[in-house]
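Contributing new records

If you add data, match the layout below exactly. Sequence lines come first and carry their own label; structure lines follow with theirs. Keep one chain per record. Anything else will be rejected by the validation script.
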Amino acid sequence: MELGLSDKVALVTGGSSGIGLAIAAKLAAEGCKVAIAARQRTKLDAAVKEISGTRGFTVDVRNEGQVRRLVEDVIAVFGRIDILVSNAGTHLPGRIDDVTTQALTRHLETKVIGPWALAKTVAPHMRKQGGGRIIVIIGQAGKVPQANAIASAITNAAQHAFVKSLSDDLARDKILVNAVCPSRIKSPLTDALGHLHNEVYLGRSLEQQETHWGAEVPLGRWGTPDDIANAVAFLASERASYIVGANIDVDGGHQRSIF
């Protein structure tokens, strides 16, 4: 299927590893000119070296001044931004007694305030050029709250509200805002979580435990970052021109919510 993404300019935050890196690679393979944004210069340089034709930009999305400079710099290099993929941030595990208020604040700044600043800065440029795409990557806790992921549940639910409200605001300008919601994706993020969510280890090996994880997914396996990247590429394309304000689960059927 031809997606019509050739020569579009895409900005991907959190793009130096895992899901973000896969998204950047997929959009580049579809013909996009890709700006990869991340905090760590070393990882960013490695990502740019891995994906030919991309450019790297350092940014901490919690800093509104850095966000404004990022957008200005990307437009100075590429002339426009057609696609914004907001992927910065990670999962914050722990029960309420485990998570400090400061940690929750940083999490909200990265995953809610950062995307807010990005959208607020990018939207005027997209209006002038006649439209665009904004895609937010949102973890499963926003739809499936749980005691040992309370901070992520709060933050991700706020992201869903942001996407839906922003889509109402920008749709008339032909700026389509949507979300992609991963779950059970094998990536550096999930590898680093160790004892994941509500799984019970009881001394079993990692291989034994991962077999149980796969059994909880109707497809019988975990997904890969490429599975998320494929969904993002579709939403960024003209093939998705009547999809707005949606959140697309990419999870092998794992999530049990019906909305």
